[in-house]
Design a protein that fits this description.
The chain is of the alpha/beta class. The protein has helices at about 50-55, 80-90, 105-115, 120-130, 150-160, 180-195, 205-210, and strands at about 5-20, 20-35, 40, 65-70, 70-75, 90-95, 165-170, 200, 215-220, 220-230. The protein has one domain: 3-Layer(aba) Sandwich (Rossmann fold), CATH 3.40.50. Strands 6-7-8-3-9-10 form a 6-stranded mixed β-sheet, sandwiched between helices. The model has no long low-confidence stretch (mean pLDDT about 90).
Length: about 230
């Protein structure tokens, strides 16, 4: 595998059995992602975006084909091994934020460190991550005391706490107003530029996709085409 590629996907296929019917969610998808690249994945409902995101995020395994993340073949790993890869190498940013409602911003950001078994400096690292996304004065606030944009900032701080190889952002602005959405995209792009974090954005919004260096279009479980910015 080319060491400049952080992701390599080869002929990924996913077939779901629905009773007697086989549903082909992915049909031989292949692509690579360079380290530090900003890539958008687009497609209509039912195109395979969510299935592909689950594969890249190590939330599911393919029926056939291979997936390499930083040179490690993760497409054949078992559940406990996939969980370790998710914790160490992938930062998730979801449309619905996925924050623990009764936990403070600080406690939410600490979670990946707890799962990783990090001791001692968890609070300091979590506070530093929150400060990096402009929430240093909100560390003891719970999600219901924060705006949607602030909740997504907490989610981004949580995503970057373990210095992941990639940030996987699934409709990151979907629940935000226009101004908050623009702030979140600016923050993600700043992380990409300053820290070299590889950024994958799954979106149906053409406006969001314009920030990407490359756009992969999916339809019916296959790559329909790609756009590369000049």
């Amino acid at each position: 595998m080319d060491q400049k590629n952080v992701i390599e996907v080869k002929d990924l296929t996913k077939v779901y059995q629905m009773g007697e019917i086989e549903v082909h969610a992915l049909r031989g998808v292949s692509f690579t992602v360079r380290s530090g690249e900003v890539l958008a994945i687009m497609g209509p409902s039912g195109s395979g975006k969510s299935t592909l995101m689950n594969m890249i995020g190590c939330l599911d395994v393919p029926t056939d084909g291979d997936y390499y993340l930083e040179g490690e073949r993760v497409s054949t790993l078992k559940d406990d091994q996939l969980a370790e890869v998710r914790n160490q190498k992938i930062g998730f940013v979801f449309q619905t934020f996925n924050l623990l409602p009764r936990a403070t911003a600080l406690a939410n950001v600490e979670l990946p460190l707890r799962y990783a078994g990090t001791n001692g400096s968890r609070k300091a690292l979590a506070q530093e991550a929150l400060e990096s996304v402009g929430l240093g004065d909100r560390i003891h606030h719970r999600p219901n005391e924060l705006s949607g944009g602030q909740q997504q900032r907490v989610a981004i701080a949580r995503a970057i706490i373990n210095n992941p190889a990639i940030i996987l952002a699934d409709e990151p602005t979907g629940n935000l107003d226009t101004a908050s959405g623009e702030e979140i995209m600016s923050l993600l792009l700043d992380l990409n530029k300053t820290q070299g974090t590889t950024l994958l954005i799954v979106t149906h919004d053409p406006e969001v996709a314009t920030v990407a260096e490359r756009i992969i279009h999916l339809r019916d479980g296959a790559i329909e085409g790609q756009e590369v910015k000049a």
